Each structure stands twice: as C-alpha cells, then as structure tokens.
Amino acid sequence: MEETIKSTLEAKGISIEFPGVKALSNVDFSMESGKIYALIGANGAGKSTLMKVLSGVNSHYQGKIFIDGREVEIHSPKAAKEAGIEIVYQEVDTALSPSLSVAENIMTNVLVNKMGKKQFIDWTYIRKAAREALDRLGVDIDVRKNVSELTLAEKQMILLASASRERCKFLVLDEPTAPLSNTETENLFKVVRYLAKEKGVGIVFISHRLAELFEICEYITIMRDGQVVTSMVITPELTIGQIVEYMLGRKLDETYKKTAVPIGDVLLEVDHLTEAEDRVKDINLTVRKGEIIGIAGLVGAGKTELCKTVFGAYKISGGGVRLNGRDITAKSPTEAVKRSLAFVPEERRKEGVIVADPVYANITLASLHKFLNKLKFVIKGKQYEAARRVIADLDIKTPSEHQQVAFLSGGNQQKVVVGKWLVSDSEIYILDEPTKGVDVGAKQDIFRLINDLARQGKGVIYASCEFSEIMAIADRAYVMYDGEIVKELNVSQTSEKELLYYSTGGN
Ligand SMILES: Nc1ncnc2c1ncn2[C@@H]1O[C@H](COP(=O)(O)OP(=O)(O)OP(=O)(O)O)[C@@H](O)[C@H]1O
Ligand SMILES: [Mg+2]
C-alpha cells in the first residue's frame, strides 16, 4: 500500500427536510480511509439523501461534519471535492456528457479550470492523464471513444476513474451494481478493493443485492425512515435475514410463495419473430391465460430486445405476434398498448416515467381512457383514487399522489412505473427486470401483484437475469443466449443451476 495518512470522516446529528418530507433525522455516520462500508435500507430510507449531504448537493442540512477531527461545512459539490469526497450517483447515464470523449469526461475538472483561465488545452496531456487514470484501475477503454459508445459498466469505470483521480479520500458508490452482469460486478469489486486497500480510499457502497455486500464490505450501516438503526462490523455470524429485519423493522420470509393459478388457453403466440437488425432471431414462444413466463438470460443475452420487439419498439424483419389467434404484430409501442400489451421497461427513468410530472399523472398515463367522463374529460378525482391505491399496494414512499416523481427515491420511481402498468387493464404484461433497484420488501409486493394478474387470467412475461426470481415466480421459462431462445423449461422441474447452464451457452 502507498504511504497514506489515515483520514476520518464523521457526520453528526445530520437532519434534512424537503417540503412535506423529513428525509433524515439526527443521523450519525462515520468512516475511515481504506475501509469499505455498506449502506443499506429500504427504498426511500434516506441513503442517497445522506450521501448527497456529504457530496454537497443537499446543502441545507443541519448537523456537523468533521474531517480528521476538524469541522467542515459542505455547502457545495466544490466544497465536498475540496474535502476529498467524491460520489458516483445512482443514475450513471446522466452523470456523463455522452457526446464528449472518454478523456474529456475523465478530465472534466481540469478542462473546466483551464477554460476559466482561457488557457491553451494540451490534448496530449489530457489523453495521457485520462489513460493513466484508467490504467491505475486496470481498465482498458480507448480514451478517444465517445462516451455514448460505451456500455453501462464502462461508463461506471469512467466515473470511478474520474472520481479517484485526484485527492479523493472518501468515495461513495450509489447502487453501482444494479445494472451490471456478474462478471462486470466482479470487475467493479476488484477496482473497489484496489482503491481501498492500495490507494487508501474510504468507500461507501449502496446496494439492494444484500448477498454481495458480504463479498467486499467490512462495516454495515442500516437505515430506516431517515434514521440509522445500527452500524456495526460485518461478522460471519451476521445473516441476510437479520439485515432485512433491521431494515424493515419486521421479519420477512425470504422465499416468496406463489399461489397456484389455473392455466387456461393460449393467449399470446410469438411466431418466428426476428428483429430487423438481428438483435433477436426466430423467437417462438407462447403464453397461456394465467401463466407467468420467465425469460431467463444473462445481461446482454437479448431479453430487453425480445421484450421491445414484441412490444413494437423495434422494427421486425420477419414473423409476428398473435393474441387470442388474432394478428397483433405491433409497429409501434402505441399500437401495442392499443392491442392490450403492457410493458415495464428496464431503463425506467429514461423510458418509464415523466419525472417532472406528479405521481398520479404517471400512474394513470397508460390507462387514461379509464378516467374519462362521457364528454371525454379526465376525472381527476378518479385518477387520484387509482394512484392512491397503487401507492398503498406497492408501498410507494411519497408525501401524496401529487408529489413530482423527480423527488422520489430511485426505487420508488421504479415502483411508479410498475404501478402504472399494473392499473392498465391489459391482456399481456411484459416486465423487464422489474425488481431492479427495489428493496426486498417491495420485491415481494411486486411478486404478489404479478401473481394477482395471473389469477385474473392475464398472461405475464417476466424477463430477468436473477434466476432465483424466475424460479420463484414463473411457471415456465425460456432461456436466452445471444439473441435466441435456446431452451424451454418447466420451472417446477428445473433449477437455478440448469438455467445458468443454458444461459451460458451450454447445450
Ligand atoms: N429533493 C427532494 N425533494 C423532496 N423529497 C426528497 C428529495 N430528495 C429525497 N427526498 C425524499 O427523501 C426520502 C429519502 O430518499 P432517498 O433518495 O435518500 O432514499 P434511498 O434510501 O436512496 O432509496 P432508494 O433505495 O429507493 O434509492 C424519500 O422519501 C424521498 O422521496
Ligand atoms: Mg437511492
């Protein structure tokens, strides 16, 4: 390890309010350089809010922050950087400038400073320094590439490289693994360990995948309703069950129990469907009334592409889709919705919600026709009522149905998108990784609602790379590999292992 002086960060009695929301009350949190901390809590518990206090975004906090025992005031992102605190936010995509190169993104700070002083920009230096920042992390990405050409995992590495470049002593990673594949997650963990152990950076790691925190974290802080419930060393005795209990304030049966639903006639038939750019090829599948179909596959296997092709979001070059024997091959998502398909997309913030609109408007957007009076005017009261029901069903944390979606926590925004489609009264529900970023309690709420849909005789397509979820909820599973369905399995007669075997190309 390089010679580093031990540094400490202590936040004491931190409170913060937003209109109608007391997001943090009297929170204590402390960390040391070189150590890795897990920050855990249900959706809306206050994790991101606390970290945004440390990174200078939530500047109107009350309480005190000390670095190496000296009090500092963090009232701007600049002040946070000066104190050595860096953060990689939950929404990786919005944190980078997509039209700029990797080098420009990594070196943003330098570029901004130079431009301010109207100095000559030394591009050779910029590229070299960016290259070095990536090399330090053992990451191989061409620094001349445009950021828009990168995968999400690569974008994250850019943010990490940029954050850890200079005097970074404390680094916050807000749900970095949510969009990553297993291999990408392992790579990220390598980089995190390196930064902590070799560079002496103190790291806060936020995640809803509780199992993975045991792999890299040494300490854990659990939050509930804006307060810290406990902070402790992670010992081998600590179980996920205990963490969940601290987090929710109640025990939770970890294994979801599906209730048996009678399965009826064939509802949906996808017949030799091929996407125009061959992103999915020759897809054949059926969904019966009351049936939940799992689409299992690793990140990048083509699950999202399959969902989007069925939903009419991608052009096709062959095949079609039938509902109740009638051709409903959709040329656009609008058409698909009219033909009784519903789709919860994976990239929810980008494709699923209008963040500037209130919760009720988002929840009722996909089914506005249900809220019209005879003169085709929207009956607001009915909209509010439907929204309140979804808020209760999915336990969405918001002061009311009138709150702007932008002010909801990441996981609660996702619940809004799931809820929006659950009220839509469709025949077929396509859900692409619907539990990504939601906490364990909410996950079970979503499972329960999907089960209800099946009980009403709807058909459900559930795409996920979490094979345990497919095992818990689906009746039948199709395994995807490289844009094709390679295997069909009866869930009661298969295992996670078998799903993994076929999804890695086994045959
Ligand atoms: N700018 C804001 N305006 C109003 N309310 C806010 C704002 N930022 C956060 N909140 C509220 O503060 C609470 C805590 O939100 P926070 O984003 O910290 O949750 P979280 O623990 O990160 O949850 P998730 O796991 O869903 O990301 C939520 O009720 C949220 O709606
Ligand atoms: Mg958050």
Description:
The chain has 507 residues and is of the alpha/beta class. It folds into three domains: 8-84 and 167-248, Rossmann fold, CATH 3.40.50; 255-340 and 426-507, P-loop containing nucleotide triphosphate hydrolases (Rossmann fold, 3-Layer(aba) Sandwich); 352-425, no CATH class. It contains 18 helices and 20 strands. The strands form four sheets. Strands 6-7-8-3-9-10 form a six-stranded mixed beta sheet, with helices on both faces. A six-stranded mixed beta sheet has the order 16-17-18-13-19-20, with helices on both faces. A hairpin with a 2-residue loop joins strand 4 (62-67) and strand 5 (70-72). The longest helix has 16 residues, at 182-197. The relative contact order is 0.11. The model has no long low-confidence stretch (mean pLDDT 90). Bound molecules: adenosine-5'-triphosphate and magnesium ion.
Describe this structure in a few short sentences:
With 507 residues, this protein is of the alpha/beta class.
What order do the helices and strands come in, and which of them pair?
Elements: E1 8-18, E2 21-32, E3 36-41, H1 47-54, E4 62-67, E5 70-72, H2 77-82, E6 85-88, H3 102-106, H4 108-116, H5 123-136, H6 152-163, E7 170-174, H7 182-197, E8 202-206, H8 210-216, E9 219-224, E10 227-233, H9 240-248, E11 266-275, E12 283-288, E13 292-296, H10 303-310, E14 316-323, E15 326-327, H11 333-338, E16 341-344, H12 348-351, H13 359-364, H14 380-393, H15 410-422, E17 428-432, H16 440-455, E18 459-464, H17 467-473, E19 476-481, E20 484-490, H18 496-503
Parallel strand pairs: 3-8, 3-9, 6-7, 7-8, 13-18, 13-19, 16-17, 17-18
Antiparallel strand pairs: 1-2, 1-4, 4-5, 9-10, 11-12, 11-14, 14-15, 19-20
The structure holds adenosine-5'-triphosphate and magnesium ion.
